[in-house]
Amino acid sequence: MNIKELSSTEYIIPGTGACAGCSSTIGLRIIGKALGENVIAFLTPSCAVASMGMTPKTCYSFPAQNICFASAGASAGAASMALDALYSKGKLQGEKPVVFNWVGDGGTYDIGFQGLSASAERNDDFIHFCYNNEAYSNTGNQRSGATPKYTTTTTSPLGKEMVQKNVPLLMLEHRPPYVATASLAYPMDLYRKVEKAKKMTGFRYIEIHMPCCISWGFPSSDTIKLSKLAVQTGSWVLWEGEYGKLTLNGITATLAEGKKKPIPVEKYLGLQGRYSRLRNSPQKEQYLTEIENNILRELEFLVGRATL
Ligand SMILES: Cc1ncc(C[n+]2csc(CCOP(=O)(O)OP(=O)(O)O)c2C)c(N)n1
Ligand SMILES: [Mg+2]
What we know:
The protein is α/β, with parallel strands linked by helices.
């Protein structure tokens, strides 16, 4: 299947408050086409709510409920269980809707992590999508657990000192039916992963890398360019896993197997305002070497993890 063969039905209606070039809107359009209309969505406080999910400017043409920050796991899990109960009592007929969460990195990595981990362990029947823009974006770009080391945000003005958590891997270690990472630069890989997850039951987790032009500081026309560079430099990795077994995908597999060298990371960081401090630092070369060494170490780790 190629991108021209995707359904022409749009589940994200134009006229939203989202920024031009908003990556999360692009991602949700693709996901909507893969999931279809028989869905129920849950949204935690984020751009997905503040700019796109509030009456009268809501842009979702499927049932979507705004829930509190920490509760994505509990809310989607409980809704799914309630549906199961109604089906078993004969009060609902037809195919069960796909219950899914659309939650930012703040709501996934930090504030909702405990509830999400509990859902994964219980194998609750829903898909959790984490759209990872590496910051608390809608509240003005505060650092999150997904913000990479040396990134400048309003709460890490000198550059974040810690590396980001690896939540997709943490989710994989719960051994749920499905975990995957994806990128907007490879829309058919994302589409395939969503279609695959849709056919499964139990806990499924898909995380999509979402360059944010406002928080990251790049022109809104460059969203996909940044998405692609993230993968080509090895800064973002593509893989999927079933019941704990990991498989590398696409360019990430090529880089990890040493068939191709990652593009120098400066090509990616150099396009983003949030790294201007790093670029102007006298220790720039040292920082870039450290970042590239970390990328190679992560790739090596993934190759090993894929053999288990
Ligand atoms: C318990 C709680 N703490 C803080 C907030 C304020 N708040 C609303 S949205 C948001 C940022 C969300 O970040 P993320 O989940 O990454 O989504 P993004 O804004 O990047 O789309 C914050 C801190 C809140 N609504 N509830
Ligand atoms: Mg975010």
